[in-house]
Specification:
Residues 8-253 form the ABC transporter domain. It holds the Pfam family ABC_tran. InterPro entries: AAA+_ATPase, ABC_transporter-like_ATP-bd, ABC_transporter-like_CS, P-loop_NTPase. Keywords: ATP-binding, Nucleotide-binding. The protein is an alpha/beta fold. It has a single domain (6-262), classed as Rossmann fold (3-Layer(aba) Sandwich), CATH 3.40.50. The protein has 11 helices and 10 strands. The chain has helices at residues 50-58, 80-89, 107-117, 124-137, 142-145, 155-169, 185-202, 213-219, 237-242, 247-254, 259-262; strands at residues 6-17, 24-35, 39-43, 65-70, 73-74, 90-93, 173-177, 205-210, 222-227, 230-236. Helix 7 links the parallel strand 7 (173-177) and strand 8. Helix 3 runs parallel beside helix 6 and helix 6 (155-169) runs parallel beside helix 7 (185-202). The chain starts with 5 loop residues before the first strand and ends in a 5-residue tail after the last helix. The mean pLDDT is 88.
Length: 267
């Protein structure tokens, strides 16, 4: 599904926090090209810089140095209008779904906000149809949820609601920061399948931020391995996992549980 069109690119991007002796380099001289319809995973342990890079991609943090381009043009985020237009195309889902919604707004209001964000002028019937369609996509029943508050839903339902929101907004790029780390194995598989379906149907670029190299291999076309703020290895997912070159990549792969070895089974 990925194409040759580069949607987001970065050249020598760095992010430094603090000054003088107290400065910390969170992202150090990284470069990347993310293509339309591509699934990318940025993989690293805590402190690797992957979440800081994700915030730079989302426009929530300003890079200290380097350049970020969107659709072949230097990214402009100076004005409120610039940021609003950028965020129409770039959306995110996060590790903790409960921190992503206003807990005092009911589900219907949360979904209606997506329609308003797009500037659509729809009748009440058309609005309800779009909300039902989005809920159906993630196997939720709008009729059962529309009058509930987020804290009345399970973690799995909240993650699905986040994906329903993405379904309604149709962004070009989705940044998914550890989207399955707080749900059980069954819900995890379902959520990943929904995200892959979104990519297949809409040509969306998906950027996973994860510590889980196994998940990254399962879903990704391309991997970027980060350690201490640097991209230490990048390339096709299969090539990197089957033939890793960097010490840190090999360490991440070695840390993946191998059930057949633990149980002394034949591979």
């Amino acid at each position: 599904m990925s194409s040759n069109e580069v949607l987001i690119s970065g050249k020598h991007v760095s992010k430094i926090f603090g000054y003088g002796k107290n400065k910390t380099t969170a992202v150090s001289d990284v470069s990347f090209d993310f293509h339309k319809g591509e699934i990318i995973s940025i993989v690293g342990e805590s402190g690797s810089g992957k979440t800081t890079l994700a915030k730079i991609l989302m426009g929530l943090l300003k890079e200290t140095s380097g350049d970020v381009a969107y659709k072949g043009q230097p990214r402009q985020l100076r004005s409120h209008k610039d940021r609003k237009n950028y965020w129409k195309d770039i959306q995110a889902i996060f590790q903790d779904p409960f921190s992503s919604f206003n807990l005092f707004h009911k589900v219907e209001k949360l979904l209606l906000d997506c329609i308003k964000l797009q500037g659509l002028e729809l009748t009440k019937e058309e609005q309800e149809r779009k909300m039902k369609e989005a809920c159906s996509f993630v196997n939720l029943k709008f009729e059962e949820l529309y009058n509930k508050y987020p804290f009345e839903l399970s973690g799995g339902q909240m993650q699905r609601l986040m994906i329903a929101r993405i379904f309604m907004l149709h962004p070009r790029v989705l940044i998914a920061d550890e989207p399955t780390s707080m749900v059980d194995a069954c819900s995890r598989s379902t959520i990943l399948d929904m995200l892959l379906k979104l990519r297949d149907e809409n040509g969306m670029t998906i950027i996973f931020i994860t510590h889980d190299v196994g998940l990254a291999y399962y879903v990704s076309d391309t991997l970027y391995i980060m350690e201490k703020g640097k991209i230490v290895e990048s390339g096709g997912a299969e090539e990197i996992i089957l033939r890793p070159q960097h010490r840190y990549t090999k360490q991440l792969i070695a840390d993946v549980p191998k059930i057949h070895e633990a149980w002394n089974l034949e591979a």
